[in-house]
Amino acid sequence: MKIVILGCGRVGAALASMLSREGHTLTIVDLNDEAFGRLSPTFPQGQTVLGDGTDEDVLRRAGIEQADAFVAATNGDNRNILAAQIARHTFRVPRVLCRIYDPIRQETYNSMGLESISPTIIGAKLFRDALLNPVVRTSSPAHSLAHGTSVPLLPMERDQAGRNQAGGRAQRG
Amino acid sequence: MYILIGGGGQVGYYLTKGLLQQGHEVLLLEKESRRVRQLTEELGTAVARGDACEARVLSDVGAERADLVVAVTGDDEDNLVICQLAKARFKVKRTIARVNNPRNDELFQKLGIDVTISPTRTILHQIEAEIPHHTLVPLLTLTKAGLGLVEVTVPPDSPAAGQTLQALRLPRSANIALIVRGDENITPSGETVIQGEDRIFALVTQDGEEALGNAILTEETAEV
Fold it and tell me: Using an 8 Å Cβ cutoff, are A28 and A47 in contact?
């Protein structure tokens, strides 16, 4: 799939690196040259475009006319909303996704048919789940929340498990 | 009329002042507190602090009762969101957005903004009108009617020079309203013969504009 991502922040860069590794063709646009430093070292050279992603000419340079999908992930809600609507209405990109922090704005634009994701709501839900269902995250039933003192032990256990897993992956790779 | 204005820059300030003088109920929203203090000094209670892009702020100032929402911040994306929220959430009938990138003009209208005002485009047209180039110069856009008033000066080597208007076979969508030749104003008829350096004023649709350009301009000049 040919995908154009707007905004090379933490999310944009991680998403671009991830999708590129999975074999998709990526172009990533940002106003700031230094932002491209966040991309993984394996991200192909020459697939970054410097410029204002709410400008049609810049989007054209990024190959939006041939894109199958467009993701607006700058840290500005309104900037994402404008860019996503340009992608959708001017360039008729088949799949357009947009990040909107403000849950009210997100709900409004979703109802207007603009597919959007609110990290605020998703983040809040993750926190709630972590707070209310902590058992799910512990590996051993021996360390239930009933023992107040067991909490500091948990990171160590998880750390060991994680290291084993990572080791296993490294060998396989 | 209750008019809500988003963005307390120069445009927002003078706009609020003007509308207040005309006797309207106006509320100007500005998000920066320092600017709000300056504005309040001049405009008093017609100014409120808040980001007009936030639905909660719009709700607090009674957006659902607004007859008109005008977004005049310096950022196109903010102006778009203010107007779209006003329409979608508060059912405001009429929204006007300032557009800084002339390219956004058409998009904003497609997205439901009733009126777009592009200072950049206006200045550009003004400058074009001052430069004696042989191109179609848009003078006025009648958005609702889908018509524009354009001016074109006939190049001396125009294929239309020496021809009657009739012979140009212009479509109805390109309606020549006036020809100015030197100091003379000519109300055109089919028999009017066009001459080089005539200034033609025409009411056109988008198609008509193209047809007029093709008939009057030479290949080199028609590119613009």
Answer: yes
> What tens digit of pLDDT does each residue of A119-130 get?
999 999 999 999
**What is each CA distance from A111 to A32, A60, A106, A116, B180, in whole angstroms?**
32, 28, 9, 10, 53
Q: What is the ipTM of this complex?
A: 0.73
Chain B nearest-CA distance from A6, in A, is: 15
Give which of A31, A59, A77, A78 to mutate to test B binding, by max B Cβ within 10 Å: A78
Q: How many Å lie between the alpha carbon of A161 and the closest alpha carbon of chain B?
A: 45
Structural domains counted in chain A = 2
Q: Which residue has the tokens 């009739």?
A: B166
Question: Does this chain's domain B2-118 share its CATH topology with B132-222?
Answer: no
Q: What is the CATH number of domain B2-118?
A: 3.40.50.720
Q: Would you call B111 an interface residue with chain A, using a CB distance cutoff of 8 Å?
A: yes
Please check whether residue B91 touches A, CB under 8 A: no
Please report which helix (H) or strand (E) contains residue A69, including its range. Answer: strand A69-72
Residues A34 and A70 in one domain: yes
A114, with CB counted inside 10 A (0-12, 13-18, 19+), is buried
Answering whether pTM is above 0.90, one says no
pLDDT tens digits, A101-110: 999 999 999 9
Q: How far is Cα B130 from Cα B134, in angstroms, rounded to an integer?
A: 12
The highest-level CATH class for domain B132-222 is alpha beta
Q: Are residues A83 and A162 in the same domain?
A: no
Q: How far is B35 from chain A (nearest CA, A)?
A: 21
Domain ranges for chain B: 2-118, 132-222
Chain B from 113 to 152: CB within 8 A of any A CB: none
Question: Do A94 and A53 share a domain, yes or no?
Answer: yes
Q: Quote the strand ranges of chain B, DSSP E.
A: 2-6, 25-30, 47-49, 68-71, 94-98, 115-117, 136-142, 147-153, 174-181, 184-186, 199-204
Identify the domain containing residue A147 by its residue range.
Answer: 135-172
Q: What is chain A's mean pLDDT, rounded?
A: 84
Name the residue among B111, B47, B56, B48 with its Cα closest to residue B79.
B111
Whether residues A95 and A153 share a domain: the answer is no
Query: What Cα–Cα distance (Å) separates residue B136 from each residue in A5, A148, B139?
Result: 38, 80, 9
Query: Would you call A54 and B101 a contact, using CB atoms and an 8 Å cutoff?
Result: yes
